[in-house]
Amino acid sequence: MRFSYCPVCGERLGLRVCGDEGEVPFCPRCDRPWFDMFASAAIVLVVNPEGKVALLDQAYISTQYKNLVSGYIKPGESAEECAVREVEEEIGIHMHSVSLQFTHWFRKSQVLMVGFIGHTDETALTLSGEVDAAGWFTPEEAIKLVHPKETGAVSGLLVDTYLKTIKSCNNGGTPNG
What backbone torsions phi and psi does residue 89 show, to the nearest 5 degrees? Predict the structure, then answer.
């Protein structure tokens, strides 16, 4: 979102050069820049002790593909805290570890997605009202059920990252969880 008016005082913003950022909206009354803002969300591939991953059915997101746990980062919350919170809220699972994999600009929604792989010792799912159904799938099954990575979908990218991790571990590497 690009500001046209100051969110503090309502003054119409002009442009002012701000270091390496170039011209940015600037409030002369408050004497401060207003940089473009955008939403950020965490998305989590939850892995259980058997190496299976949690996939969700959420018709409000897609009726064609299964989803990973995801949600918007709240003010004052870290991306990691959001990941843990969303997994507990949506599928009732506590993760004992969560590791950052990558960030990805999701152009379609104009959201910065922060991708994690989380590990849990739990397998019983308790679904929130925004989840129609959920279950555990092998990563090989999951890659065929989520939005394809070729479309720029973060779910496909995360499952692919996990599959590569598994292959690396099977060839002498060490697991992340």
Answer: -70, -45
